[in-house]
Every structure is written in structure tokens, then in C-alpha cells.
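User: Can you help me understand a structure? I only have the sequence.
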Amino acid sequence: MPDLAWVFQLLVLATAVGIPLYAWRERGRTYAIFSAVLLALSLPGLVALHVRLSGWLLAPHAKGWLDLAFAAGIAATGLQLAHLVNARLRGPLFRWAVSIPGQTFLAVGTLTWIWLLVLWPIRALLAATLGESASRSLDGLDLLPLLLCVVSIGTSLRLVHDVARVRLGVRGPEALQRVPVERHRRPPRPLEEPVLRLVQISDPHLGPWQSVRELERTIRRLLAHEPDLVLLTGDFLTMEGRGTPGGLAQALRPLSGYEGRCYAIFGNHDHEDPDLVSTSLSSNGIELLVDEERLLDTPIGALQLLGADYRGRDRKTHLETFLAEHPRRARATRLLMLHDPLAFHHVPAGDVDLTLSGHTHGGQIGLVSMGLDWTVLSESRWPDHGLFARGAGRLYVHRGTGFYGFPLRLGVPGEASLLEVVPA
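Assistant: Let's start by predicting it. Here is the structure, written out as C-alpha cells:
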């Protein structure tokens, strides 16, 4: 195969210049800057990776295939960013030929230049002390970002279905802390005491990684558990989802049979098009709670359901005011739907029995697939996934039904759980 490096280089130049100019003309300055920043973060790493891998390949035909693969990847990247100028949901052929490889290539390039910078001083030290051959022994590590992103595609497309049991009323630590949650991959033995069976759907992000058909299929599988309640904790759309009126309503159609037992709140992305989200919800009988309360009869007795709107600012004042306006009902379990778990720090201790959140996508990068709780958010103030306790209150952070953007769910698969809530 002939040397096709010039094709890759030409496509890099055309993408770097053409996409921001096209975006500026058709959509305006904001998206033009956004696309330019993405390309500035990714293209240098892709060029560097191409140069590094080309140096390995001595056989001309092998280098030709490498050039062709990189040219196809950068073409998919450019087409994906161009498509977002007038974003809409596409069929499986476009998703698998353009959107998924294009977003993966963006992730590979971004990780590569960071990784090569990390390796650079190590290579320099080895070359200075042990010679160039020792430095070149690290060349295989250049592939690590590419391998991680390829592996992450599998994790990003995977949902773990299980049953999680959450017991309320048990005194926990005074400061917010992760606590074990009882999980079952198969239906567990029924408990003798009454339980509230609920399905939480969080961060579905309808788009290239979550098609209408896939989200609809996931919801139907969750409803097969015959839950008492279905609670949706926000972030329904991506750019493609926003650009496709009717898409979200169709994906949520299985929930139309749960009218009176299905409630939702806004996430941060939902405020980008609140009318589309609220219309899609209401058309399926899903009740949107915007700083509102509902008192429900459930198998565990009265349930006081509170739905907090997403706020990016003044969270403490907002939550304290909202909760004060809806004080605890006598003999009722108090459940709060709160999109961002970071805001749980502003919920007064002991004021809520159980809070359901999402937003973090489980931390996205971690060791959950290996049975460990650690993620990149574990040492932050952000509760990343699973069950947390503060006093008698519990916070459950859903890992997300989907995610947005780069395919960087690495070791943290999405979640499709049935929650069995055991009252005090």
C-alpha cells in the first residue's frame, strides 16, 4: 500500500481550519469556539501518536494501513463535529461509522498528548543514564491511551442490571461517608418485611451512545421488575437529543403505563431546553417536580416525595428554603430527588431519610468493574456512586443510565438497578 501520510496530514489541516469556520458560519461563535477547543486538545496528540507509531513500522504496507486508519479516524472526527452544527439523532450506520469512532478519536488525541508529556521526562532520564535503547523500550507505552479508549467503548455501552437493597433508619457516621450496599445480580430471596421497590433512571443522555431504541429497551427491562415507583433524576438529552423533537418522548414511551407512579426532576442539561424535556415527560404521564412535594401511599406506608430543581448557584439557600417550605410529614418516609449529589452537603443532617442523585456518571473512571469502589472522584467532596450515610440519612448516587461526550467510562459501567428500600 502506498504512503498515505499526506492524506492524514491534509485531513488534520482541513479539520482544524474548516470545522471552526463552518461552525462559525452556520451556528455562531459559541459552537465555533467549542469545536476549536476540542480540536486543539485532540489534534496535537493524534499527530504525535501517528508519528510515534509510524516510526515503529518498517514495512511500507503496514505504514500504509496505519495512515489509512488515522485518516479514517480524523475524517470521522470532522464529520461528527460538523454534524453537531445541526445536531440530531441518527441511525445506527451513522452512529457506528461516524459518531462513536469520531468521539473516540477525540478522546484518544486528548489523552495521548497528556500521556506523552508524562512519559517525556522518564524517557529523557533513561536516555541520559542508560542510553537510547533503554528509552526506546518504553515505546510500547505510547499505545496506552488508544488501548484505554478502545476498552472504554465496551464499558461505555454496558449496563449492569442488579438489585440493590437500602435499609433506612440505621444510625451512620456523623460525617458523610460511603457505606456498603447489598447488591444482587439475580433476584434475591424476598424479605418478610414490606419494601418499596423503585427504579431510578438517571443521566440517560439520549444521543449517539444511547439511541431511542436502546433507552426504550432498557426501560422495558427495568419495568419487568414491576416497581412501585419510577424516579427519573435528570439529564435526559445531548446536543443530538435536543435537535430531535419527539425522540425523548418516544424513548420514554414504556413509562406511559406508570402514570401516578412516575416522577422526574430537571438535571443541569435539561435547563438547556426545559420545554422539550417537560413536554416529553408530560406526554408519557410522567410528573415533573420543580421544587415540589407529593404525598404518596406505598407498600411501606406514606411517602413524602420531594423533587428539587437543579441550581448551579446558591444551592445552600435554595435547598434550605425548599426543605423548610415542605417540612417532614408525620409518620412518612421522606425521600428527596436531587440531581447533583454534591448539593447533598447542603441538606440539613437528619432532614431527609433517603436522597437519590446521579450527575457524576459514577465517576466514569475507576475500579468498579473489579469489585472496588474507587473512582477518580473518591477523594473529592463529590459522592461518586453507591450508598453514603450521614447520621440516619442515606444518599444513593446512581452511576447513570448513559453518559455525555467522550467514551471514557473506564472501569465504571452504567447502572440499571432495582432499589429495594427497607424502612426503619
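Now, to help you interpret it: Residues 5-154 form one domain. The longest helix spans residues 92-130. Let me know which part you'd like to focus on.
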